[in-house]
Amino acid sequence: MIQLRRSNPSVLKGGPMQIYFSCSITGGRQDQPIYQRIVAHLQARGHQVPTALLADAQMEPPEAQLDAAAVYARDVNWVKTSQALIAEVSTPSHGVGYEIALAESLGMPVLCCYQAGRKVSKMITGNPNPAVMVRAYRTPEEALQIVDAFLGKIG
Fold this sequence. Notes:
Layout: H1 9-12, E1 19-22, H2 32-44, H3 52-55, H4 60-64, H5 68-80, E2 84-88, H6 94-105, E3 110-115, H7 122-125, E4 132-137, H8 140-154
Parallel strand pairs: 1-2, 2-3, 3-4
């Protein structure tokens, strides 16, 4: 079981959680279909995903309406009010790295998943924190199995 530094009863009961899903936006949207699959999978299991809009194929127009300060405030609040963070890290992103580090600093369980064969930062793959799980996947179905295994460990 992943050890949590902060106490949050909803994680320990194994029930639905608020999960922050982190993915590349400005770094590229080529992985958007897998983002959408992961978010839909989480929602189908009853979890709240405040960042679900980021997985949407039409995400950019609404997101472009917000200034940088508003995006920062909103996203930091969402991370702080979530019980776990799941990041798809196949496409490099400064924002995703920031969100992962923020969640880690809060003692939050983190899953970083990526497509096998993609080059991922060694700052992620080399992280020794037991609360940070890093896994490669070959197919979307395998990615969903990794998500379920992560949720099973923290629940």
